[in-house]
Amino acid sequence: MARRLTAATAQVASIPAPVGGLNDRDSIASMPATDAVILENWWLNPSKLVTRSGSVSWATGFASAVETLIDYAPPSGSTKLFAASAGKIYDVTSSGAIGAAVVSGLTSNKWQDTSISTAGGSFQYLFNGQDDPRLYDGSSWQAVNAGSTPIAITGVTTNLLTQGNVYQDRLWMVEKNSLRAWYLPVKSVGGAAAKWDLGAIFQRGGSLVGMYTWTLDAGNGQDDHAAFVSSQGEVAVYRGGDPTTAGGFVLIGVYYIGRPVGQRPCVKYGGDLLIITETGVYPMSSGLLTATIDRVAAITDKIQNTISSLITAYETQFGWELCLYPTNNALVLNVPMSSSQSIQYVQNTISKQWTKFTGWNATTFKDSKLGFFFADGNSVKKAWIGNTDSGAMILCDSLQAFSYFGSPVQNKMFTMVKPYLRTLGNPSVLYGLNGDFNPQDVTGVLSYTPPSVGMIWNSMVWGTMVWGGSYRQLSNWNTTGLIAKSAALRMKLQNNACATEWAATDFVYSNGGIL
């Protein structure tokens, strides 16, 4: 008896955009469908992806690379922004070509800054371990040493001070290539510095990288602690604020968290403290809970294989740092790959997921009331503004996690795919399917045709114009003949100076055999 052959029934599936962000931790064959193998220049909102914002030129005319940005933000009065380059400091509060330097004759441009307010006003202190510290009072700069006026620091060789932090109303300072910290009298920016030697505390040697304030819940409310971080990865935690009295500054413990990476490895994160280490970026509160390093405690756990490879390759490059940008719920991890090239891994602090930014060749970042800034070679740029990088289009790339579409062992014939995009303009988009865990590029050329200048009556074709000012839907089917057990959308997009959103992707396929 003859057997009737029936055609395979087409099925449709819809997968949300990869709002779960980058994932190099899980097997490529089993990661969640809303994660991504590749995700570049897409910003992660909890409900959708958006092409990242652009940048514009802010300050130009520097003789060499800018290596430090300084934000002076007094409790009252105007915020100021400064940049250090070529042994000088410039006021870059206003955009445009830089004027005359406000400080000159410096040896290093790699400063670390801290602010302190006293009865005498609001001050910004700078330390770099080579020059005498610089103190800004809102109107003038002063080099501070044992004989300087009107403010002096005695008892320590001031040009060896590399970092400062205000803790319990005292200015603490770290001495270069040593395990010594120094502190000033309460609410003072000058005076006799007293030594706090941690040489007998740290068992692994090395030198102090910095002293930071760490806030944790001690059981009866929030409590500030002092955290001294060594170059060998040890952290000494103290409680109390008065090192001049017995019992006024007590060692809680010494912990190992992994060697810090970069000259500026730490950033305040709410009450916690984040630190870039050779084993990932850790919140102090989680990293010190156990005697051994628990990789899962790292906030970079989901992308740690990538971060570890980058640290191995580029650890000695200047520019490793973390910068918070609360306005856009972003935490930026800057990864310097050379003196002129860097990338960023950026976490949405709400969803805790990661994406990758390219096109911002930053040496350092700074969040200010004036905006979000980064140093790019011989210029300063304002970031997270507009939809181009000073006129250059933003290129986005993505490969979503592979999906079995409910049947791991069956082959499928994928016939069509359609991403749901929403845009304010006319981006250039290329997309197709990758099969069975084999990442491949899409073919074609991304292009941009500038709009015509002006309109001639009776020359326009109805339906071809793109009206500005409101979003429009882009959801076109693309045919494909992929036969595979699993598939993932690979998409490249050139934003063409317009914001574009990605919400989901539809797939049409038919199930086949188990071969």
Give the count of helical stretches. Answer: 2
Average pLDDT level: 90
**Uncertain residue ranges:** 1-6, 452-466
Q: Radius of gyration, Cα only, in angstroms?
A: 27 Å
Distance between the termini: 26 Å
Relative strand content: 35-45%
* Shape verdict: elongated
Q: What's the story with the biggest beta sheet?
A: 7 strands, antiparallel
Task: Give the class from helix and strand content and strand pairing.
Answer: mainly beta
List keywords for this structure.
515 residues, mainly beta, Jelly Rolls, Methylamine Dehydrogenase, Chain H, 2 domains, 7-stranded antiparallel sheet, 5-stranded mixed sheet, 3% helix, elongated
Structure report:
3% of the residues lie in helices and 44% in strands. The longest helix is centred in the middle third of the chain and has 11 residues, at 304-314. It is mostly beta strands. Strands 1, 3, 4, 35, 37, 38 and 40 form a 7-stranded antiparallel sheet that branches. The protein has 2 domains: 10-51 and 396-448 and 468-511, Jelly Rolls (Sandwich); 55-390, YVTN repeat-like/Quinoprotein amine dehydrogenase (Methylamine Dehydrogenase, Chain H, 7 Propeller). A hairpin with a 6-residue loop joins strand 11 and strand 12 (134-136).
Layout of helices and strands:
Elements: E1 10-16, E2 36-40, E3 42-44, E4 49-51, E5 55-60, E6 68-72, E7 80-85, E8 88-91, E9 96-97, E10 112-118, E11 121-127, E12 134-136, E13 141-143, E14 153-154, E15 161-167, E16 170-175, E17 180-183, E18 191-192, E19 194-197, E20 208-217, E21 222-230, E22 234-239, E23 250-256, E24 266-269, E25 272-277, E26 280-283, H1 284-287, H2 304-314, E27 321-325, E28 330-336, E29 342-348, E30 354-357, E31 364-368, E32 371-376, E33 379-383, E34 395-400, E35 412-423, E36 428-435, E37 472-474, E38 478-484, E39 487-494, E40 500-511
Parallel strand pairs: 5-9, 14-18
Antiparallel strand pairs: 1-40, 2-34, 3-4, 4-40, 5-33, 6-7, 7-8, 10-11, 11-12, 12-13, 15-16, 16-17, 17-19, 20-21, 21-22, 22-23, 24-25, 25-26, 27-28, 28-29, 29-30, 31-32, 32-33, 34-39, 35-37, 35-38, 35-40, 36-39
